Amino acid sequence: MATHNNHEVKKSAQASVKPSRKKMLVRVAIAAVFLFLASIIGAVFIQEFVGKSAIGKTFDKSSDISESRVGLVFGCDDKFQGRDNLYFRYRIDAAISLWNEGKLRCLIVSGDNHIHQYNEPEKMKNALMARGVPTEKIVCDYAGLRTLDSVIRCKKVFGCSQVTVISQKFQNERAIVIGEAAGMNVIGLNAKDVIGSGGTKTKIREWGARVKMWLDIFVLHTQPRHLGAPVDLPL
């Protein structure tokens, strides 16, 4: 009789454990769904916040910019998979249009140069010089590893709090939010955008870039990887 009772107790215990596990799995699944939805809502909010923050501060034509400032050109490689990189070409075109209209005091070309064989600033500088910008009016920022680094270094290293950023609109908008959070006065000239599959992939990545920017600025208070001694601009 005792053996029979023990067997019944074990069956009862096992029966009670199974529903508990099911409830736990259901709760985990519900929490995961809520977390996913919250992430989507948060990402959408950040996209809208960045866009609204830059309203009236980016311009499609150099003639719409009324004042002369330091120009900050965001770097990228001049080639992509063996072909001309249109992002690079269009940014150079935009910078030249500002320069030719007398809207720039000098130019900072900021990009990645983490290895000797890869040098975005030098490529931008050479492209600008080939189009008539004097070499002494171009300053290379070799530690512009990403947009945040380029913008913050513009203020902390190059001593410039008023700047015209030059890139495609999506990056200009993000740069304006970063700059204003750092107490800067930032406007942007929008370079021509890139269409097609390459442009679409960039737009998708921009969602993640804006979320990371939000966390860096408003949560983590991230600083550039490299700062260094102040550099005088040729104003």
Short description:
This protein has 235 residues and is α/β, with parallel strands linked by helices.
Question: What does this entry look like structurally?
Answer:
The protein has a six-stranded parallel sheet with strand order 1-8-7-2-5-6, sandwiched between helices. The protein has a two-stranded antiparallel sheet with strand order 3-4. With 235 residues, it is α/β, with parallel strands linked by helices. Helices cover 53% and strands 16% of the residues. Helix 1 (2-53) crosses helix 6 (197-220), helix 4 (147-156) crosses helix 5 and helix 5 (169-181) runs parallel beside helix 6.
Secondary-structure blueprint of this entry?
Blueprint: H1 2-53, E1 58-59, E2 69-74, E3 79-80, E4 83-84, H2 86-100, E5 104-110, H3 120-130, E6 138-141, H4 147-156, E7 162-168, H5 169-181, E8 185-191, H6 197-220
Parallel strand pairs: 1-8, 2-5, 2-7, 5-6, 7-8
Antiparallel strand pairs: 3-4
Helix pairs in contact: 1-6, 4-5, 5-6
